[in-house]
Structure formats: structure tokens, C-alpha cells
Amino acid sequence: YIPFIFLFTFLFGYVSYADELNVIKQNYKKTILYDSGNELVKILTSLPKEDIVSDQMVVELIERYPYDSEYINGLVKTLQKDGSWNDINYEDKSRSGWQPKIHAERILDLAKVYCTENNSFYRSKSISRSIHRALKFWFDKKPVCPNWWQNQIGVPKTLGAAFILIEDELTTKEKE
Hints:
It is built from eight helices and no strands. With 176 residues, the protein is mainly α. Helix 5 (100-115) runs antiparallel to helix 6 and helix 5 (100-115) runs parallel beside helix 7. The model has no long low-confidence stretch (mean pLDDT 86). 62% of the residues lie in helices and 0% in strands.
């Protein structure tokens, strides 16, 4: 009788934890995907988008701006066969404004339009292929910034958001 109670408690707790984790993931996805109906997003996008940003909070706000088709098509067209972009210096050793972080940001940009309903890129095979090619390049290259913050926080935060968005499409190797 007692082992049954422990088993039931364990299973119930696990199911509850898994359900809660799914709710958290879904809510997080809603915060990073563009929502044109959100009043705060409307206010934000009424302001001019800054091109050069160093403050992390401003970076995260700019990530909420909608992407135009020209930008996304440009990312897909300029992605090299090896999964890199030729306008990024992957050998950059800067401690701030580290160029390879742009690669991670572009993966997130592609993942966001891929997962946002009501746009022409939603679940596009071309976007999916581009995401996986760019991920392969990143995993093969393993860029390291001289600034620990990018390696431990900046890039994992950016790629982590992309991974959550496309979690159901990540291969076993990509998950590893």
C-alpha cells in the first residue's frame, strides 16, 4: 500500500511538473514572438528602431520589433552553403560588440518568423533549412568570445530562445 502511495505521488508530481513546464514555455514563446495586437508593442514600434545598441535592455526591446520580408529574405539569400554569413567576422576578438553574436541573433530572427502565425514565413521549409544550416555552422565553429558574458549569458540566452521556439524540430544532435 505504501509503495503505491509513493509511486502515485511521484507520477502525479511529474505530470504536474511537465504540465507547468509546458505552460511556462508557451508563455515565454508569446513574449518573444511579435504580437501586433499588444498595446506595448504598438507603442514600442511607433518609436524609431535604433541601429547601434549596446544596452542589453534596448537589445531585448528591439527584438520585439516586427521584421520586414526584405530583411528575412536577405538572411536566407545571403546564408552561405556552410551556414555562415559573409558579413560576419567569425574571428572577431572584441570584448563588446562581438560579431559572431550577430549569427545567433539571426538564428533567433529566423526562428521567430518561422513560428509566428499569419506571416509568409510561418513554417516555411526554406526558413527551416536556413535555421538548421546556421545552427550546424555554429555548433561546428564553436565561436568563443573573450568576454565571458557572451559565452555564459548573451549567446545562450539568444540561442535558448530560438531552441524553445523550434524545440519540436531540433534533431537529437542539435539538442545535444
